[in-house]
Specification:
Chain B: This is Transport permease protein. The complex is a heterodimer of chains A (281) and B (283). Chain A is an alpha/beta fold. Chain A has a single domain, classed as P-loop containing nucleotide triphosphate hydrolases (Rossmann fold, 3-Layer(aba) Sandwich). In chain A, 43% of the residues lie in helices and 22% in strands. Chain A has a six-stranded mixed β-sheet with strand order 6-7-8-3-9-10, sandwiched between helices. In chain A, strands 2-1-4-5 form a four-stranded antiparallel β-sheet, covered by helices on one side. In chain A, helix 5 packs antiparallel against helix 6 and helix 6 packs parallel to helix 7. The longest helix of chain A is centred in the middle third of the chain and has 18 residues. The termini of chain A are far apart. The N terminus and C terminus of chain A are likely disordered. Chain B is mostly helical and 283 residues long. In chain B, helix 2 runs antiparallel to helix 3. Chain B is elongated, with a radius of gyration of 22 Å. The chains are: A alpha/beta (281), B mainly alpha (283). The complex binds adenosine-5'-diphosphate and magnesium ion (MG).
Chain lengths: 281, 283
Amino acid sequence: MNEEHSQEDAVTVTGLRYAFDRTGTAVDGLDLTVRSGEVFGLLGPNGAGKTTAIRCVTTLLPVPAGMVRVFGHDVTTDRMAVRRLLGYVPQQLSADGGLTGRENVALFARVFDVPRRERADRVAQALQAVGLAEAADRMASTYSGGMVRRLELAQALVSAPRLLILDEPTIGLDPIARTGVWDHIMAIRAASGMTVLVTTHYMDEADQYCDRVALMHQGRVRALGTPRGLTDDLRARLGGDATPTLEDVFRDVAGSGLDDQGKGGEFRDVRRTRRTASRVG
Amino acid sequence: MSAAPAAPRPASADADGLELLLVPPRSRPAWRLVPARVVAMCVVELQKLRHDRTELYTRAIQPALWLLIFGETFTRINVIPTGGIPYRDYLAPGIIAQSTMFIAIFYGIHIIWERDSGVLTKLLVTPTPRAALVAGKAFAAGVKAIIQAVVVVLIAALLGVSLSPNPARLLGVLAAVLLGSAFFSCLSMTIAGIVRTRDRLMGIGQAITMPLFFASNALYPTASMPGWLQAISSINPLTYEVNALRGLLLDLPARLPLDFAVLLVAAALGITAASALLGRLSR
Ligand SMILES: Nc1ncnc2c1ncn2[C@@H]1O[C@H](COP(=O)(O)OP(=O)(O)O)[C@@H](O)[C@H]1O
Ligand SMILES: [Mg+2]
């Protein structure tokens, strides 16, 4: 049974389009395949459409055009099956400040139908796995940004997801907290072999942690490959001895439109993150 | 510390202390989802109340004032035709219904808060059908309302209202409060789904609570209302809740089957409407 699953792709997106009433097209014909077991990075500047695409994969948004499958299940017709396979950490910092860390995780154990007899142990293991065992019984409103993110990771992991979806997991965190979040993600992934789909606009993180990346710009994938492969290709094309970074690859594929796009996406992201941060603690 | 349960041990060596996180929980049969989610939401509500009880205390003030000042005064003046019982007694069930309705009618604010803070988004990506989430929230509001009802019953008893001590009747009281709050909180969540901001919901909540209260039999019998108000009162679920509470608490002749039927249907309609609009909050 396991072999059969590991052959199957974790996510298949074909021709996905999504347009908002107010701001127009956000995802414009996205094609994407995430293989089972890999860490796949969806990269792009703010406003590229990463979050919108992720929200279609997680069943939060409908799929008006195109097709999205998660381990073979269509996200429009087989929502519940898809949701059972997913762990999701949204872009916005979102833990319930009126509950303790442990209670926050226990809620997710309950809504994923973890039986009562193993609930406490499972919750404890999830908190342990993200390094929050000590702080588990403090109110989440007293957590730092990095701790809230790790708490959210624990919430996502308590149901043993086969696909972990992280939307800008390190946005707004200081460098040490960023490393902390990634270290926990990679450790758990090494143990469980789960697939990770992560969006980020930090190219250095993608370079370091992702097996493959897709560079997204204005709603479409502009380049796809391993971080190493993409930079090597660009070097071969440009000649010269300087080693290009992923960021250079990005400037190359996105062209000059990179600096003036966004339609206010950047501003909204920052505002949203701040608003939560002040609410949570 | 954590005793390893009898789950199949994974092969990986890195899995120490993580073994439960490698096995997905079995899914429950569909018919168990709704009750399971209702329990989950109610547990969260109780945990929050345990951490912060201020709301519990501040919410006791208004009903106490209604019973103490309004109730005592009108008992003395004795102008409201209550069918021979002291007005204080007549009023108590009305105040239970009113103060629990107030809690429920602002419950949608929690939903908007949860949506703004991203908590709702994450719940929507769990195997929880929308209707189960809404039912869970509705009954969580009911849990708050029941606690409030118990507080008001105690206040009323202290003020000398002669309430029925029959446990079956008291259970009936809790059921009526639960259903009434489920309806009003769904009304609130429905409005939340339409207006989508906290301020607008606050405004609408303020605008409708008093009309719902006055267009019911909470303060005075329907018979003494003008005809148009009687008509409104007869489609106001609060009237049926008050009727049930009055019948149960004061041991009066009542139309309990009708009252409970109306409350059940209202709650079911509320859950349906709110679940249909919940998706608007995730866009
Ligand atoms: N809820 C929304 N309503 C209207 N427009 C939106 C909404 N969310 C995103 N957008 C718009 O869609 C585009 C893509 O946004 P998003 O998917 O958030 O990009 P990213 O996650 O890559 O920063 C942007 O132009 C943004 O302004
Ligand atoms: Mg985003």
